[in-house]
Amino acid sequence: MFQRAPGYRYGHTWRMQKLSLKALAREQLAAAASTSSGRSSRTVYGGQEHVLRQTVIALNAGSSMSEHDNQGDSTIFVLSGRVRLTSGTINWEARESDLLMIPEARHSLLAVEASSILLTWAAHPAKGSARADNGDSAAPRGGLASTCSGAQQDHSEDSALA
User: Fold this and answer.
1) Domains along the chain?
2) Got the DSSP string for 53-88?
3) What burial class does residue 127 get, using C-beta atoms within 10 Å of its C-beta: 0-12 exposed, 13-18 middle, 19+ buried?
4) What would the mean pLDDT of 47-52 be, rounded to a whole number?
5) Which ranges of the chain would DSSP assign to H, the alpha helix?
6) Each residue of 106-154: pLDDT tens digit?
7) For the segment 89-106, what is each residue's pLDDT rounded down to a tens digit?
8) Which of 21, 65, 118, 122, by CA, is between 20 and 30 Å from 107?
9) Does the structure show a pLDDT above 50 at 49?
């Protein structure tokens, strides 16, 4: 997990660090196998106070993230396995190393086979919020948290996925 440099609150002020997404994906797949939901996740960058957030999510074959709204700009990078993203009547299938751009519409995700993904999400400021009103575009609370409800999560600094 990234650690903030002392005295700094936002942005690119963290120490540079390296993380193996493949190793983390393997860990999360093992964790997902032992949960009743068939899912596990760990935020690797960002948090409640940031616009950008990246989370590794593992899903057992047949597990899904039920239909939910997109509350920001989002992509899914498939680390392993095969997933199906559905929005309305349109489906996109993706395999390892594929990148899906998530539509700004309700959507769901199904693991066609045991899969791990890197979800990258940049929040839109909540309308009417103090952050939106003063130009600070930090992530609103809520959002993707419902996406992974029931997932095993490992967050050092925060307790929600979005």
Assistant:
1) 38-125 (2.60.120.10)
2) EEEEEEE-TT-EEEEE---EEEEEEEEESEEEEEET
3) exposed
4) 83
5) 21-33, 130-133
6) 999 999 999 999 999 998 776 544 444 444 433 333 333 334 333 333 3
7) 999 999 999 999 999 899
8) 21
9) yes
Alpha-carbon span 63 to 82, nearest angstrom: 12
User: pTM of the full predicted structure?
Assistant: 0.71
d(CA 19, CA 8): 21
Cβ within 8 Å of residue 64, ≥6 positions away = 108, 109, 110, 111
Contacts of 6 by beta carbon, 8 Å cutoff, 6+ apart: none
Which residue in this structure is represented by tokens 């609370």?
Answer: 141
Weakest-pLDDT range from 30-39, 63-72, 153-162: 153-162
- For 127, residues 6+ apart whose C-beta sits below 8 A from its C-beta are none
Residues 68 and 144: beta-carbon distance below 8 Å: yes
d(CA 155, CA 43): 6
Helix/strand/coil percentages in the chain, nearest 5? 15, 35, 50
